């Protein structure tokens, strides 16, 4: 340090804290604060209202005759409603827990579009609600019609992305 003719005491932390900011440092500090505020505004996660309408408004739990749950690896469970209640398909009538199935059906049929995340098909892969990239695919057969729901990535705090097949709108739900 003696080669630069800078006194060693001028570099001490105590002395540096007492030095006032010069104009360049002050300008840089202001620019940093503005950039930080702008980044928070631009990248802060937000959802818009989707209207709150039920995704499956015309379906009742009593109409559902089968429930198919699949994951992206090809694993699948099929439950069927028979005369004696819910059974696991392909097992010669092995009974399924009817109470859990009815609770799950009530939750699925109560899902609504009140937390719209996106309306673009380009976002489906990223949110894992695409037809070929999903976390869970749930297919309900009710009244002769088939309805497919795609459950996707988790958005944190128990929230999951959700999309009804045939629609580009993707929602956020904490009900499943």
Q: What key phrases describe this protein's structure?
A:
two-stranded antiparallel sheet, 32% strand, nine-stranded antiparallel beta sheet, 4 helices, alpha+beta, 176 residues
Question: How is this structure best summarized?
Answer:
The protein has 176 residues and is an alpha+beta fold. The protein has four helices and eleven strands, in the order ααββββαβαββββββ. The strands form two sheets. It has a nine-stranded antiparallel sheet. It has a two-stranded antiparallel sheet with strand order 6-7.
Please state roughly what percent of the residues sit in beta strands, choosing from under 5%, 5-15%, 15-25%, 25-35%, 35-45% or over 45%: 25-35%
Q: Main sheet, how many strands, which sense, barrel?
A: 9 strands, antiparallel
Q: Given the C-alpha coordinates, what overall shape results?
A: elongated
- The count of strands amounts to 11
Q: What's the tally of helices?
A: 4
Q: What does this protein look like?
A:
With 176 residues, the chain is an alpha+beta fold. 24% of the residues lie in helices and 32% in strands. The chain has a 9-stranded antiparallel β-sheet with strand order 4-3-2-1-8-9-10-11-5. A two-stranded antiparallel sheet has the order 6-7. A hairpin with a 4-residue loop joins strand 1 and strand 2. The longest helix is centred in the first third of the chain and has 21 residues, at 23-43. It is elongated, with a radius of gyration of 28 Å.
Outline the fold blueprint.
Layout: H1 13-18, H2 23-43, E1 64-71, E2 76-82, E3 85-88, E4 94-95, H3 98-109, E5 116-118, H4 124-127, E6 129-130, E7 133-134, E8 136-142, E9 145-156, E10 159-164, E11 170-173
Antiparallel strand pairs: 1-2, 1-8, 2-3, 3-4, 5-11, 6-7, 8-9, 9-10, 10-11
């Amino acid at each position: 340090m003696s080669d630069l003719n800078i006194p060693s005491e001028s570099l001490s932390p105590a002395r540096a804290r007492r030095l006032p900011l010069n104009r360049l440092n002050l300008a840089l500090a202001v620019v940093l604060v503005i950039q930080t505020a702008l980044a928070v505004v631009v990248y802060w996660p937000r959802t818009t209202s989707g209207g709150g309408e039920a995704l499956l408004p015309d379906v009742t739990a009593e109409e559902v005759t089968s429930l198919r749950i699949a994951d992206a690896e090809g694993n699948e469970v099929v439950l069927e409603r028979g005369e004696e209640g819910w059974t696991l398909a392909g097992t010669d009538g092995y009974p399924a827990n009817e109470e859990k199935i009815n609770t799950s059906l009530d939750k699925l049929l109560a899902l609504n579009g009140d937390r719209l995340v996106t309306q673009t098909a380009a976002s489906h892969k990223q949110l894992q609600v695409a037809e070929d990239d999903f976390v869970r695919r749930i297919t309900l057969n009710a009244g002769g019609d088939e309805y497919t729901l795609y459950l996707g990535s988790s958005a944190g705090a128990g929230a999951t992305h959700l999309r009804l097949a045939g629609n580009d709108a993707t929602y956020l739900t904490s009900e499943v």
